[in-house]
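We treat protein structure as text, and this decision shapes the records that our systems exchange. Because each token names a local backbone shape, the row as a whole describes the fold. An entry from our holdings is shown next, in its original layout:
>
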Amino acid sequence: MRRRGNLRAGSADVVVIGAGHSGLAMSHSLAARGIDHVVLERGVVANSWVNERWDSLRLLTPNWQSSLPGYRYSGADPDGYMSMPDVIDFIQGYARHTAAPVITNTEVISLQSDVAGYRMVTNQGQLRARAVVVASGAFNQPSVPAISKFIPAEIAQLTPREYRNPTQLDPGGVLVVGGSATGLQLADEIHASGRPVTLAVGEHVRMPRVYRGKDIQHWMHVVGLSDEHYRAIDDIERARRVPSPQLIGSNSGRMLDLNALQQAGVRLSGKLAAVRDGKLQFSGGLRNVCALADLKMNRLLERIDAWVSAHDAVAKATPAERFAPTAVDASPCLELDPKSAGITTVIWATGFRPDYSWLQLPVLDHKGRIRHDGGIVDPGLVVMGLPYLRRRKSSFIHGAEDDARDLSLHLAGHLDAAALRDQFRVGARGLPPTPCMLPGLAGRA
């Protein structure tokens, strides 16, 4: 594997941008088709996991589900959940296993169209390619709302990208904004450290860690929910914006939801709506968003129950169950003076977004999101690793294999068409056409 070096002006059939699990899965699929390619990584392999995650983070999926093309978890704890160091070892081990052609510490500064495809300017030089795979990640930049600028100056503000553990926080209370997986996990950890925590909750997805004796991901897989195709969804753009489920990777099977946090002593409020005169003002819709999350969870459980009954699997599963509705105070907090409440830190667990500032092509919508059809942006440009890219599981590690297979097949067709065009142009000039004008295509499966 090429680790680092000056990237002299050159070319490749395909350039993959990003050496996380999605980029490496695509590299494996391209190699299996005999397609010449290189993988550019701004830092090190699995860079986001190495440099941009908090210490206690674990995967939301069980170890048995951790797989990439030709590679899967083989440890002694298939029902456990990988820690951050485990994930780093897994992804970096995969890069070594596949001998992926990775060039690290190579940041793409700009990507532009070129007469023969695309041209990249990097901090190591320039590179041209017939096709490009954008696998730079869906979670590059924290999505911090504009309201953050009105938080009183004496209150520290952090994002999950900057947070590592509770010891870095100032003494005092903490407001965690965001009720999805990240917000719940941070609220839980920080409260356990002895600090009072308030959690501001907006739209969220409630989900049990274990249902009918099996991890919820088992049911998502066997029922077919994880493999639901993007073309089968009525409003795919809406589906791609659904928050991550309220789960925690815990061998205890613990269900981490709003009820569990309240029982531990975490205070709930509605969505942070405004800051006026230094006071925090919250939405009054907490009861409604919690009721909607409960409703959707129960619909999921009913779908699982129906599958169990239809497949004669009742004897193999524990009885169906339902969970207590989310408890909401009759008069939830609508306004809070952070000074009198002792709040010294706000953590914005309000999601992430990709960084496409280097993408100098007309492929972004008015909100800066890349436009694509199941990962295909243009014939020679595809994207990997985004939520619900081609399937519900697309953004998970185990979801990369199917997407890489589909999109590498698309790129193979694009490269074949480009080769035929080149042959035609050469033949039209009176020169004998050659069987293959692009390096690395000969012998491709």
About this structure: Residues 400-428 form the longest helix (29 residues). The chain has ten helices and 24 strands.
